[in-house]
Amino acid sequence: RCRARIRTNRATMVAAVATAETPAPKKKNPLASFFGGASAGLTSSVLLQPFEVVKTRMQAQKLSGARGMVTITRDVVQQQGVKGLWRGVSASCMRTTAGAGLYFFLLERVTKEFSARESAKTESSFTRSVTMFTAGASARTVAAVLLNPITVVKTRMEYGGVQGKGVFTALAEVARKEGSRGLFSGVGTTVMRDAPFSGLNLLLFTQTRSLMSEVARLQQRETGAFDTFVAGALAGAGATFVTHPPDVIRTRVQLGRMMQARSGGSRVPVSLTKIIKEEGWRALWVGSLPRVARRTVQQAITWSLFDIVSRSFGGNFLAEDKKK
């Protein structure tokens, strides 16, 4: 009996020591996704702002006589110096940081809500794809509408229509001169651009990353940062090119109100059919090269940093996907 008790006590002590040495799972911060998205958005905005400046100026011009990406870049540098390529970076950082943080914060919650309703075992691959697209589009729609006033100021700063003014001063001026219509000009086309882009981007990213995870499994390795980077780049490039036309319309609408307020004349209407009729289909993809280049790198950086930063705060839905 004594020997049995001694063995039992030893087993209990070993189990207790093992439990004590096992680190407790890190408690997840409810804002992990927000911090991950915000840091990724800030980094990509600062690094890639020149592409956005060139793209905005390309979209503002008519197709006939339009200048190319290299020509506009050279003109900006000659007239304003290299710092001219970072015009509007303050508004861009505010919008992208807040937008990406809010997007990923909402995305995780929307994804969980959909997952709770549909069991992964019962839903088909088509249903899962629709769920991903809807989750991305829904989260981005909310963020796009809330941040549209900053988008208006950002676009005008990049074009050169707002000089020597801070973001909040420019916002106050637009509100005073144009009212809520000015602050929310182009909100419809912004949603038409951002909702499909985010839905398609999320769908392409999850599908590509899943494929790369399978490749990693066959190679007997874990899915790493490189896989996330490549999946983000491919998803960003594809989704950006497909959803470019609404961005052309958005730019012209938001710049049109500024030009009307300055000249006092009537505003020239901007519409999809009008652009196609007067300039042709090609006009809908003016500025697509710098935008696709920027978004490709931006999405690669965004998804990679989001995964790293949010996991340092306790994990995210990407980390959860790895466990499944």
Give a short summary of the structure.
The protein is mainly α.
Walk me through this protein's architecture.
- It is a single chain.
- With 324 residues, this protein is mainly alpha-helical.
- Helices cover 77% and strands 0% of the residues.
- It has 13 helices and no strands.
- The protein is globular, with a radius of gyration of 24 Å.
Largest sheet: none
Q: Would you identify the regions where 5 or more consecutive residues have pLDDT less than 50?
A: 13-23
* General form: globular
As a percent range, the share of strand residues is: under 5%
Mean pLDDT equals 81
Determine the structural class based on helices, strands and strand pairing: mainly alpha
Which helices and strands appear, and what pairs or packs with what?
Blueprint: H1 2-21, H2 32-60, H3 69-80, H4 89-117, H5 125-146, H6 148-159, H7 167-183, H8 187-218, H9 225-242, H10 244-263, H11 272-279, H12 288-312, H13 317-323
Helix pairs in contact: 2-3, 2-4, 2-12, 4-5, 4-6, 5-8, 6-7, 6-10, 8-9, 8-10, 9-12
